[in-house]
Design a protein that fits this description.
Number of helices: 5
Shape: flat
Order of helices and strands: HHHHH
Oligomer: single chain
Helix content: 55-70%
Structural class: mainly alpha
Distance between the termini: 43 Å
């Protein structure tokens, strides 16, 4: 986790440095124009926002590393595979509802591209898929 945090802070420094170079280059490339008009604002602001987003993730990973109270098994070289094997949840490998949910999203997206009359149909399929997925354990295994 410490390595991830350091990588994000290095990325912040890189984005800020490149933003300064990019803005300065634009000012130097247009000496006949006043400096606020010589700056290409979209690139400068987007690189600044990239630095801010990387700082946000770096701050988050730093706080998580600080609050976990030590190194995770994934971060130590002497750890076994079983040391970092948490329970990830309960999944239904036989469930068809995620496929129906993806189909509803596809119908709604095609409805936005082709004709808006398909969007309510996609939303209807979405409601059926969500209800079916949530309540599939109440009906038994392999139930439809």
């Amino acid at each position: 986790m410490r390595t991830n945090t350091n990588l994000w802070w290095i990325l912040v420094v890189f984005f800020v440095f490149i933003d300064i170079v990019y803005t300065g280059w634009n000012i130097l490339a247009h000496p006949d124009v006043p400096w606020p008009n010589a700056i290409e604002w979209v690139g400068s602001i987007s690189m600044l926002f990239g630095a801010l987003m990387a700082a946000m993730i770096g701050f988050y990973t730093h706080r998580v590393h600080k609050s976990q109270g030590g190194e995770l098994p994934e971060d130590t070289l002497t750890a076994d595979i079983d040391d970092g094997d948490p329970e990830l949840g309960e999944f239904s490998p036989w469930s068809w509802w995620p496929l129906v949910l993806a189909a509803s999203a596809a119908v709604a997206a095609i409805g936005l591209a082709v004709g808006t009359w398909l969007v309510p149909i996609g939303l209807g399929i979405f409601v059926v898929a969500i209800v079916g997925w949530v309540f599939e354990y109440y009906r038994g295994y392999f139930a439809r």
